[in-house]
Write a structure and sequence with these properties.
Elements: E1 7-11, H1 16-28, E2 32-37, H2 49-52, E3 57-61, H3 67-77, E4 81-84, H4 91-96, H5 99-121, H6 125-130, E5 132-138, H7 163-182, E6 186-191, E7 193-195, H8 204-214, E8 218-221, E9 227-232, H9 233-246, E10 252-255, E11 260-262, H10 263-277, E12 292-295, H11 310-316, H12 324-337
Parallel strand pairs: 1-2, 1-4, 2-3, 4-5, 5-6, 6-10, 7-9, 8-12
Antiparallel strand pairs: 9-11
Helix pairs in contact: 1-9, 3-5, 5-7, 8-10, 10-12
């Protein structure tokens, strides 16, 4: 079944993945988008310059913890679907200051679910059947695969390690409960590590790029052998939209690219590509890898994440298109050409 939408409410649409979702919808569909975003430090309205010129795009500065504001948005714009991306997501920050993660990821999701439920309950039967609530989550809720050769599946037990992943796990459980108890038509996605244009510079890949450009030390936690599965953000966005259009209510879909690299390998690949793209090195170094330094490991640092995405590939006919090294080169080149629009 291909589900038809007209108006999509996106939370956190000025963030990295949220803005990519909005750009995709505006550029490749006829759907209208209502973007609500609190505009925290990680938001970047420059990432929505293309969308903001469209008649099918509306922006509202709204905190998802503000129930009154959410009710107004639902009543004013009558969305057919919600794609919920608003979240605090930086693991390091969750360790030093977890309260923001509890407020945004748990209380915010609860408030949004209740506003959505109230709105959905008052729809006609026809519009109730059309409504969808897509909750975008992370593979980090599953915890640590360790040195095993296994993969996260949709039935892997939750075992979060950080305040960030614990808060996302909590929000997942709320979404599942609102489906089971109230019948709210929810679907959950879990994606692995995203990368691409407009990602905030606190994240690993853009952080390495900018530290290399500035000739500053590139710090790697522990021995750098932690393994991550990387997915290009546009591939994740296409998967999320496929879930919106064709996903089954009450289901969970894991989204991965089968691109496993250690953190050290990822940093070294970036440095090697930058050696080629910007051969004039800062501070007298001969290669960007000379900037790498190892620091004490992060508390509760998971060793390996890897996703089995066979369910979404088989059921929704989605598969990732971008290979890691080609996507990484695109990403590096984008940052080199767009330093003025980074959040």
């Amino acid at each position: 079944m291909f589900y038809s939408t007209k108006r999509v409410l996106v939370t956190g649409g000025a963030g990295f993945i949220g803005s990519a979702v909005i750009r995709y919808i505006i550029e490749h569909t006829q759907d209208h988008v209502i973007n609500i975003d609190k505009l925290t430090y990680a938001a970047n309205l420059n990432s929505l310059a293309m969308a903001s010129s469209s008649e099918r795009y509306i922006f509202e500065q709204v905190d998802i913890c503000n129930r009154q504001a959410l009710d107004r948005v639902f009543q004013q714009y009558h969305p057919d679907a919600v794609i919920h991306l608003a979240a605090e997501s930086h693991v390091d920050s969750s360790i030093t200051s977890p309260i923001a993660f509890i407020e945004s990821n748990i209380i915010g999701t609860f408030t949004l679910l209740e506003a959505s439920r109230n709105y959905w309950n008052n729809l006609s039967d026809e519009n109730k059947d059309k409504f969808r609530f897509i909750h975008v989550s992370t593979d980090e809720v599953y915890g640590d695969l360790g040195s095993t050769k296994s993969f996260f599946t949709e039935v892997t037990p939750y075992s979060p390690s950080s305040p960030y992943s614990a808060s996302k796990a909590s929000s997942d459980h709320l979404v599942k409960a609102w489906y089971r108890t109230y019948g709210l038509p929810t679907i959950i996605t879990h994606s692995t590590n995203n990368y691409g244009p407009y990602q905030h510079t606190e994240k690993l890949i853009p952080s390495v790029i900018f530290k290399a450009l500035a000739g500053k030390p590139i710090s790697i936690y522990g021995n750098g052998l932690q393994i991550r599965d990387w997915i290009y953000v546009e591939d994740n966005v296409k998967a999320i939209y496929s879930v919106l259009k064709k996903g089954k209510i009450g289901e969970t879909y894991n989204i991965g690219a089968n691109s496993e690299y250690t953190n050290l390998d990822t940093v070294q690949i970036i440095c090697s590509m930058m050696d080629e793209l910007i051969p004039k090195h800062p501070n007298g170094i001969k290669r960007y890898q000379d900037l790498i330094q190892f620091i004490s490991d992060r508390p509760g640092h998971d060793y390996r994440y890897a996703i089995d995405s066979s369910k979404i590939q088989k059921q929704l006919n989605w598969k990732p298109q971008e290979k890691f090294e080609s996507g990484l080169r695109k990403t590096i080149e984008w940052y080199l050409n767009n330093t003025g629009v980074i959040g």
